[in-house]
Amino acid sequence: MIQITYYVATSIDGYIAKKNGSVDWLSSVEMEDEDYGYSDFYTSIDGLLMGRNTFEKIQESGEWPYGKKACWVWSSEILKSKPCSVTETNLSPQKIIEKAKKKGLQNLWLVGGGKLAAEFNYKIYYFHYSCNTGTRYTANLWHTI
């Protein structure tokens, strides 16, 4: 069984990023020395799913932060440069889940992209999001894939 977690920071009104794609607003609400459970969460996942815009924003920040964890990026265009662990795709979520199962992966992180989250809507096992300073909400969705 694969579990997909949508772990995301959001504004109180449900926005992930500004219109220009920036998430710089996060730094204004972060508490020093608080990782909001990220370290524990990150060690629990073995693969990532993200949209092209999210991928490009991460690439802009410099070094790829996810090491060799398998990662699928949804894009209709060829990615200019990518780490070796990244696979670009335009396959359906179900097809990628099947590929992840064949690789023996069990816990996937849906990193970002509202459009991609909508595509995975009924496949997400956990919603884990930070909303407002120091507050975390987690919703467990009990269906197996």
Automatic annotation (TrEMBL):
Keywords carried by this UniProt record: Oxidoreductase
The enzyme's E.C. designation: 1.5.1.3
Example of a GO MF term: dihydrofolate reductase activity
Key word Oxidoreductase present: yes
Gene3D superfamilies noted in UniProt: Dihydrofolate Reductase, subunit A
InterPro entries: DHFR-like_dom_sf (IPR024072), RibDG_C (IPR002734), Riboflavin_Biosynth_HTPR (IPR050765)
GO biological process, one term: riboflavin biosynthetic process
Pfam families recorded: RibD_C (PF01872)
Enzyme type, top EC level: oxidoreductase
Domain spans labelled Bacterial bifunctional deaminase-reductase C-terminal: 4-120
Listed name of the protein: Dihydrofolate reductase
Organism: hydrothermal vent metagenome
